[in-house]
Amino acid sequence: MKELTLVLKLTLLEKKDVLIAIFFGFLAGIAGVALMGSSGYLISKAALTSQMTTLVVMAAVLKLFGFASALSRYGERLYSHRATFTMLSHLRVSFFERLSPLAPRIFSKYRSGDLLSRIVGDVESLQNFLLRVFYPPVVLGIVFLSVVFFTSFFSLGIAIVIFIGMLLTVVVVPALFSSRKRRMDGQVRAQRGNLAIESTEFLYGFRDLKIHQQLNAKEQQLKSDAAQYNEGQRQEGLEENLAQSMNAFVALLVSFFVLGVGAYFVAAGELDGLYLAMLVMVSIAAFENVAPMAAFPTHFEESRKAAVRLEEIVAEPDLPQGSEPMPSGPLDIRLDKVSFQYPNENSLALDRISLHLLPGTKTAIVGPSGSGKSTLMQVLLSVFPLSQGQLSIGGIPVEALKQEEIWQQMNIVLQENHFFYGTIRSNLLVANPLATDEQMIDVLAKVQLDILPLSMTVEEKGQNLSGGQKQRLAIARAMLKGKSLWLMDEPVSSVDSLTGHAIYQQMFQQHKDDLFVIISHDLTGLEKMDQIIVMEKGCIVESGSYDELMEKKAYFYQLKEIENSVFT
Ligand SMILES: Nc1ncnc2c1ncn2[C@@H]1O[C@H](COP(=O)(O)OP(=O)(O)OP(=O)(O)O)[C@@H](O)[C@H]1O
Predict the structure, then answer these.
(1) How far apart are CA 493 and CA 507, in angstroms?
(2) Domain range spanning residue 349?
(3) pLDDT digit string (tens) for 460-490?
(4) What are the residue boundaries of the ABC transporter domain, all occurrences included (predicted)?
(5) Cα separation, 379 vs 357, whole angstroms
(6) 427 with 559, same domain?
(7) 3-state helix, strand, coil in the chain (%, to 5)
């Protein structure tokens, strides 16, 4: 139950609706029982009396109970569903708020299909929490206790039979089916997750699967996963029907028992025969609503598992966040023996990196593939928590700063940049919502992209732009942001070298006082950089200006020699 605390708390935010739903649920249940009971009484009374007025009054009362039952059921449905959907919206908002800070790291742990299945499927499953787990037992319990109390005035024996029947149908039968269900439920949930994972991979990788002629094989796999999931759901449905039928059967047996015991008491002179039909009808009506209780363990287990699966995603400790404001003025970045290890990896991706990056300087980070350059960039962006060491910006440790404030101060261009469906204008406004058309045209010109009109449509993920155009649009976006810390990971790798160098020249000339950190595979043009950091296997193996490193004739010099030999 502990796992459902958050859902319960969010449900109780709509306390008023929940209480009204319980009240109407009780009213509908008790009116239904009263309707059946009074009809039983009316039948007996009609057989024994010829007094018309009594019969007319009884018939009117019957009608009243009928109306009351229907209206109360409507009220119950209205308020319980309103409370449920409001709770779901609270849950989605609270889940999203906790998920969004984890977004940069989340895919190292979960596949997107799995995330989708959890976010959509599990949140959806929790709609059953109020409707089938929380309030029906409360309503049923109150209705049953009222019925037991009422029948005890006529016959204690019958009241005890109904009470035992209640224990059987509300507790014993559901408990018998719950362990079978628990086993089955785990399988169906895994099958659903699997299907979601395979479907998203199929969609993401459609082009590559087609190129490599693997589409049919993957399609077959998907069909077999879907068939397994369908079969699992079918079995689950059968099991649920079996449990409900069993419960209805036990309820009917109890009503027969009430009839038998009642008849015995009438024969023994312990019960007035006038009330026998009424008590049997009361019992039938009270047990009428009990069949869905067989599904209670199913829904309880489903809600519990859904809550656990959702909590698993967001339970990951968030990065420590402080509240210190970002210092104003030029900012420096200092790394002091910073190490970083990816979760579930054995070796360090960054090993005791120490660096001091000053305002007004340009630093290039170079090194072979897999040496840790992008990881260093992610650490500078404070996306990952450090395994060891300290990172400070403007003299303040990053743990003391708010993550959003850190990003607020940075012009960031990553290897892969996202473009939204919209226009060039709307994609530029992401960086600076207040930018004017003139400013946007100006930055487009600086990255030599002014042939693209601001109103041009950008398709999803920028599919209608070339690789180089996307990179230049990302740089234009960073320029528009206009902050003093520039972090760029291979920003012009898909741009021809002439245009790439012209863009760098523009940036460096226009932003002389800013701090630039640029990851580059390309070793040409690094003469303009103030500092070059050479990385290998997560360590800094060399650093210095271009001339210093060339003079040293060590690692960087050798890389340069290899590059020259390849291109000459
Ligand atoms: N999300 C991740 N989870 C686990 N290990 C990772 C992850 N990302 C990178 N690594 C590992 O960390 C090491 C450094 O990778 P990184 O991407 O920083 O290298 P890089 O120098 O930027 O490479 P490239 O030049 O090819 O982009 C590599 O061994 C890589 O396998």
Answers:
(1) 16
(2) 333-567
(3) 888 899 999 999 999 999 999 988 999 999 9
(4) 333-562
(5) 14
(6) yes
(7) 65, 10, 25
Residues 7, 88: Cα–Cα separation, whole Å: 9
Pocket test for ligand 1, best of 111, 345, 366, 375 (most atoms within 8 A of CB): 375
Ligand 1: centre distance to CA 99 (Å): 24
> In this structure, which amino acid lies at residue 388?
Q
pTM of the prediction? 0.67
CA distance 280 to 299: 31
The per-residue pLDDT for 260 is 92
Over residues 516-534, the pLDDT tens digits come to 999 988 777 788 899 999 9
According to DSSP, residue 357 is labeled E
CA of 375 to the centre of ligand 1 (A): 6
What is the count of structural domains for the chain?
2
Asked whether the beta carbons of 397 and 338 are under 8 A apart, the reply is no
What angle (nearest 5°) sits at the alpha carbon of residue 556, between those of residues 360 and 522?
Answer: 70
ipTM: 0.95
Query: Which one of 373, 414, 518, 520 would you pick to mutate in the ligand 1 pocket, going by the greatest count of ligand atoms within 8 A of its CB?
Result: 373
Is the CB of residue 349 below 6 angstroms from any atom belonging to ligand 1?
A: yes
Residue with tokens 């038998």: 260
**CB atoms near residue 461 (< 10 Å):** 14
262 and 375, same structural domain? Answer: no
Task: For ligand 1, atom 9, name the residue with the nearest CA.
Answer: 375
Indicate whether 321 belongs to any domain: no
- Of 254, 286, 314, at which residue does a domain stop? 314
Select the more confidently predicted residue: 135 or 70.
Answer: 70
Which atom of ligand 1 lies at the shortest distance from residue 519's CA?
22
